[in-house]
Fold:
Amino acid sequence: MIPALMPTYNRADLAFVRGEGVWLYAADGRRFLDFGAGIATSSLGHNHPHLVAAITDQASRVMHVSNLYRVPEAERLAERLVAASFADSVFFCNSGAEANEAMVKMIRKTMAETGQPDRYRVICFEGAFHGRTLAMLAATGNAKYLAGFGPCVEGFDHVPFNDIEAVRRAIGPETAGIIVEPIQGEGGIRPARLEFLRALRDICDEHGLVLGMDEIQSGMGRTGRLFAHQWAGITPDVMSLAKGIAGGFPMGAVLAREWVAKHLTAGSHGTTFGGNPLACAAANAVLDVILAPGFLAGVERVADHLWNALSAVVEECPAIFEEVRGAGLMLGLKCRVPQAHVQQAWLEEGLLAVNAGENVVRLVPPLIVSAAECDQAVAMIRAACRRLASASAAAA
Ligand code: PLP
Structure:
């Protein structure tokens, strides 16, 4: 019989009842170091006092009013995001896929409103992940996710990641824009080369295309900069955010330059919950923390520490790990043994992580993680390596 909760996920048999900082506590009393952060989402960790206070305070005043009215918390959040980014204007929604949908609509509408209605196609990359709505399945382009869901939404062309000549070849008279993750997350923590991102910017300028950045996973401080594209010294025209933006409260956002944003006029797009007072209070609280002087520099410092420690583990355990990849606190360990075995061994040591493509285990801890907590995680990884090594010796 089907469970009441629809079985759309392969869930571990673990239920958490409480969290504190980087730690999660299970119903049976066990505690886990959370280096998955709810898939790179709990940016301030668990039970962060400032975030909890902001949500509690807002909930006690007003949670939801609808976009029929002004929402001061949303106006403030948008102004802060604009001040901290390339963007001139922000649209709020509730998830990553929804943010990407709005981004694609903005790209298409920009062309339609500037006398180029035939330009609607968007170039995306192999290995990308943009979400699970029908259009975002098409943008993702992964046959496994598309199977069984009927005709694929038209208008997305896929080329190999980090291959600028392939991008040039894919541009046609119907191309409207390009959407790229600066670091592919689900695809296996695959960073775009910085010169590739710069070349995409140049190509978009050359051809009048809109450059869209999917920073749903890589944004909001995850790589030690507020946005990962900043490492390349370029700016996109439009960018989607979600995951860490409100520290675990569901929220998405699209940030855009005026020449793109101005075409999403009243009535052309909308969502009931998008940017409601509660979500915006949460996101403003997250911004208070990550924009505080020195916070992102601290993320970078801890991330360097973690990178070095993981690199040492890779050297010590060449039969298990191939390499460390990623940037900031968006790191992956490419495994030589099935990553599910590695994750299970980590779990047994008390460490939570997330799988990714290309047999990679993702380490995406809360941004508030300390160097000492990284050392604890690495100690667990070492212990798990010994466990895996002795298991494979026993099997041989
Ligand atoms: N884009 C990227 C880069 C993501 O990592 C994800 C989620 O993993 C999404 C889009 C989809 O976001 P959501 O699951 O909130 O719809």
In short: Residues 39, 95-97, 100, 129-131, 181, 185-186, 214, 216-217, 242 surround pyridoxal-5'-phosphate (CB under 6 Å).
